[in-house]
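Exercise 7. Given the components listed, write out the predicted structure of the assembled complex. Treat all entries as one system.
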Amino acid sequence: MTTDLHDLLSRVADSAPVPSLLDGVRARRRHVARRRTTAGLAAAAVVVAGGGAVGWRVHQTDELTARFGAAAGYQHIRGPAGWPSGRLAPPITVPTDGFHGQDMHLEPLPAGYVPKVDAVQAYAICTEHGPCNRNGGAVMTLAMVTYDFGHEPVLRRVVWLGENGPSECSAAGGQSAPRSGGTPTPASPVPPTTRQCTATIAIDAATGAALFVSADGP
Amino acid sequence: MRAVDVEDFEAYVRGRGPALYRLAYLLVGDPYDAQDLVQDVLGSASLRWAKVRAADNVDAYLRRAICNAAASRWRQRVRRPERLGPLPERPAPAGIDLELRDEVLALLRRLPRGQREVLVLRYYEQLTEAETAGVLGIAVGTVKSQASKAAATMRTLLAAPLIERETE
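Answer.
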């Protein structure tokens, strides 16, 4: 059994192509050095698009948040009256009409910034219904994008987060708050499944720009 | 970091990085998480490389750091909702049994963290019980019991035809 397990685990381990680790490690060292001298360094912008008629307000967050605040970060996001918290940069409202497939150049990287940051996360909030009203409107539909900057545009996966995720958001029967505050309005009868979509992002390692952004949902 | 340290560190990463990555891959079960994890650990180690190098066993030191980092991510993951709808990944290299890989990774995920760590270190890394105990900071007796439980669980979970197929 010991040998069997070793062989089995070895085959599984060997099935994962080994990435170039050194670039990412160098990037981390540079980033740490920068963070020691430049407080509040902004991250490269990323965009997450929602599917169908759903728009997503996208927040940028910096690598520090991404690295150390993955779990706590989204909990700090508040409803319209409270957000963005100090962790988050001002939101970008991403138009949905005609958006799919367009090349997008996002905010320029800060001067001296080498776009080899290992990971950046973006938090997207569904704007179709506004933040869900559960938990006092504090938790919303979120998407987290994690990817590496390498020598070439790297497609990474998209992760949906949030206690009120797509399957549990206001469309599932709860109530939603309007985008600009005020009295909560009944959720529209959109089946939860239509709220799930997948964003695809490629990042130009040289410029940090999103080369291609698309979204598709069920 | 002195230039000589940088050279030494990067030479170490080139030589041992792949093995550390594979260890992380088995622990976390996701290639991207494994990549992030290993780069995090190595990035931190690089900042105090002279001290790390002075350790009796650099591999053991970094294995422990990877296990700790994996445990930390595991705890975070417990608090997170599961990811929905994975994006298409890059094509897998030819000759790899993806079904087998996915099945084994799923089984590893089902193991309690402690058992998974012991299983990977003992049966994949082929560390001794004492070495495994040293990496994980636990007693040798705990390693024995965890390894026994983990192996038994794997034996139970793995379908007999699969084992036979893979060990023929």
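Discussion: The mean pLDDT of chain A is 38. The longest strand of chain A covers residues 210-216.
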